[in-house]
Amino acid sequence: MDLKLGRMTLKEWVAVESDSIQPVPRLRQELFRMMALAADKLRHLGASVDSVDGGSQQLPNGQTLPIPPIILAELGNDPKKPTVCFYGHLDVQPARREDGWLTDPYTLTEVDGKLYGRGATDNKGPVLAWINAVSAFRAMEEDLPVNIKFIIEGMEEAGSVALEELVRREKDRFFSSVDYVVISDNLWISRRKPALTYGTRGNSYFTVEVKCRDQDFHSGTFGGILNEPMADLIALLGSLVDSSGHILIPGIYDHLAPLTEEEKKMYEAIDLDLEEYRNSSQVKKFLFDTKEEILMHLWRYPSLSIHGIEGAFEEPGAKTVIPGRVIGKFSIRLVPHMNMSVVETQVKQHLEYIFSKRNSSNQMVVSMALGLHPWIANVKDNQYLAAKRAIKTVFGTEPDMIRDGSTIPIANLFQDVIQKSVMMLPLGAVDDGEHAQNEKINRWNYIEGSKLFAAFFLEMAKLH
Amino acid sequence: MDLKLGRMTLKEWVAVESDSIQPVPRLRQELFRMMALAADKLRHLGASVDSVDGGSQQLPNGQTLPIPPIILAELGNDPKKPTVCFYGHLDVQPARREDGWLTDPYTLTEVDGKLYGRGATDNKGPVLAWINAVSAFRAMEEDLPVNIKFIIEGMEEAGSVALEELVRREKDRFFSSVDYVVISDNLWISRRKPALTYGTRGNSYFTVEVKCRDQDFHSGTFGGILNEPMADLIALLGSLVDSSGHILIPGIYDHLAPLTEEEKKMYEAIDLDLEEYRNSSQVKKFLFDTKEEILMHLWRYPSLSIHGIEGAFEEPGAKTVIPGRVIGKFSIRLVPHMNMSVVETQVKQHLEYIFSKRNSSNQMVVSMALGLHPWIANVKDNQYLAAKRAIKTVFGTEPDMIRDGSTIPIANLFQDVIQKSVMMLPLGAVDDGEHAQNEKINRWNYIEGSKLFAAFFLEMAKLH
Fold first, then answer.
1. Can you tell me which residues form the catalytic site (chains A, B) (predicted)?
2. Do A359 and B243 touch (CB under 8 A)?
3. Which of A149, B144, B431, B452 is most exposed by smallest CB count within 10 Å?
């Protein structure tokens, strides 16, 4: 495996300021250049490459910017082999030296075995690791054990504009032969121990508006004779969750997947230094004291967070206002097998009940502003078994079997549209700092990760 | 009484854009011109006039602007007569034609007996009405029945910068001979019936901060394992007041002045069309159904309003944030004889108790950010009796005896520093629109108001 070459390419790719967040024509050009470099690279690998026009993006200010093409590529179509589709992205978060970077963010720099640079771990490094794995077979003139497809986009950090439409359009064409989808766009939860991600929580985001009138009131002139919307809203928000984090909405826990002995063991096996986690989180005390409880409450139990209030006084200082119309915002992280529309009904009924008890003359409107299903994979699927064996071969250990407490829309998208097994197989360590200053990928992770992908191809072929 | 001349002067004064809010050198010059015009006017009246340098104002941007002088003037010093000091201000709120004015805000324009113009009722008209009253005696070459003092400022709308310092400094000099202070800077609560204002509520403004850490959290990554500061804060704010407006802080009602039969009758006598009040307030339903209950809850009972939360998500949209540190803001309108430091202790003890019950690992800090005492006058004081008689003479009716639910810092200031009887004797009607577009004073109010002040001088002399 020509890893020196692989590192040179990573350096070349990191040097492209493929920032999709800042809507600047110069950066958009860099994104196009990035996608062209990747298409070239894949063609050199022998893949047939289709750069699909992404159309254009309408900005809030009315300006229009072109969306970089999404690459669909394929290598091999032997009907006897399984077809694995790899998703990755080559756009990055903004980075400037003066934000606190110790090295230039767009010059890949090795210090103590760490390769620093924007996009090194999110997600240019993992994309190249996959390409390295394919190259290895090519270089040894060996047949690829699996058929490979690539879907590589350049707008992930900006919300994967245009991706969903493409995936739906290509469902019965490009994706029709796909058996497995692999995403490598998250991190381990440890510095040294590999992980496999098999689920994410969903989210249902609610707004509750309480209105007396559109204008605000002065608290001297009206304080004492009004059903103040803030008092109503505070009572509504205060009815949602108790101080132990338990959600108080009746029925909300009814459809939770039962905790099996097998699942319990997965939490026990996970490598998590609670003390370090607490320190790095800068949290004095969590609601729970054990690793297992903490992980379960992040991954397999729902949680309710109150985000804020729109329309009230939020600035520094002391303003004596009675807000006339306020909107509270909260969301519930959903887990298997909660049903989003059941949750919506439960929340609405609960808030209507609490509001009716107050006998307020204000108007209340509850809306579910956003709903994302939870995602859970079957860890007994072939690709999870293959990945576990490959990890054992390359790293000599069992992986941490992890979930993500957040929603990863791309996993949901592939799961929902293609309806094939989706696996998240991360390469980066927990301290890689994706989105932060001094993002890095360890040289060790990058090299062993490339080997891992190659070993995964072999194991997949064996299991198929 | 030369009222034609009085209207000419009002036109001239309204024409000066004496806006103290916008910190613009041109407008500051207009303010200086306004104060010079007033000083001239008072000198023509025969008063000895002292324009006291106001020093300068430091703006938040570091810029410095001069503060217009405060006028101290006096007319007569007969030790056998009472000395009445009149407070007024000649600065105005900003106004632009395009804000929705039907006439030019700086050109006094009469339409259907209404004199439209910025400052017409707040407070140039009433200041001139007082001057008109003095002029009337001068014009008839009659002796003034009382000694008159004036304190006229040009920064009231901007918070009376420099006033308090001057009043304290002049306590034993200019103010030493003052027996009564009259302020005419508020409105009747009816269109046709005069009023006397004898009290205002105070205010104690609280902040309660709940902190887990300085940075925010992502609700996917941390939701479920934290004592979320918003949940704590919502519970704290939710413990303050019930849905009927009753304050739940133990002891808060302990020191309220008892409601006497006499006071009760004052509310009953007040002219208030509830239906019109409700409509003009755009409020579907108040907490109380009778005029008396509504007025008492605005004037003689405390109220608690929750103003908002600093540090949470307050913008439109759906952000999945767990705020790391939030500051709730609420205030209690104080009434006689609540003691501010007792209230402070009650609030702190209550919140500490509620917080301790939650067993949260967050930190809570409660602060009283601002405290203003309530003001109440003795309505049996000579000047209240004199004003009632003068109203009866000029308007043929008893006045509404009213209070203000807001704090009027100037009344407090004179009460606290000079410790003489303070009376608020408004001239303007409830619909004058001070601070709003199309501010006006009715010609009738202006003329009868000038007569009222003259009659008041005579009644004062009789009672003394």
1. 91, 156
2. yes
3. B431
